[in-house]
Amino acid sequence: MNSLSSFVLGAASSNNASGYSGIILIILMVALMYFFMIRPQQKQRKEHQEMMNELHPGDEVVTIGRMHGKIDSINKADRTVTLDCEGIYLTFDMVAIARVIKRADAPASEAPKIIKLLLVLQMLQQIALLVSLHLQRVLAMNKKTAKKSNLI
Questions:
Q1: Sequence-ordered list of residues with C-beta below 8 angstroms from that of 77, at least 6 positions apart, any chain
Q2: 128 Rama sector, left if φ>0, alpha if ψ -120 to 50, beta otherwise
Q3: What is the DSSP string of 89-146?
Q4: How many CB atoms lie within 10 A of CB 149?
């Protein structure tokens, strides 16, 4: 218990760069969270809205419930779409459209999105490794200062 209190007091009374490293680490984590979570979500929301605006009858789509169908009609006033699912006509809200499989005139490609996703995952893995190494160094420095304060 004594070593724990001296560790806390040593960390609190430290006036060198290790005292600021915690604040810098928190700021870094907030910035990373913005760039890797909030910003891509805003971009995805914008892309989804553009996709909704570009829907046309004849497009093949998938709903959020994984139902596949072809757009029969679009009601922009009510923001609904009527899907032809092999002869069964179902009406959905436009927000229920998850993605467009094939436009009425051209097929869509998913390969570039998967490659980008893999690159982002690799970068996140490297950042997590760097952050863990930094935390280990900070903890080692705090342990050394705690041991020095116990000797004095």
A1: none
A2: alpha
A3: EEEEEGGGEEEEEE-SSSB---HHHHHHHHHHHHHHHHHHHHHHHHHHHHHHHHHHHH
A4: 15
**Distance, CA of 99 to CA of 101 (rounded, Å):** 6
pLDDT in tens, 40-72: 888 888 988 888 888 889 899 999 999 999 999
Question: Shortest CA distance to 137 belongs to which of 17, 3, 14, 27?
Answer: 17
User: pTM above 0.90?
Assistant: no
For residues 24 and 124, give the distance between their C-alpha atoms in angstroms, rounded to a whole number: 18
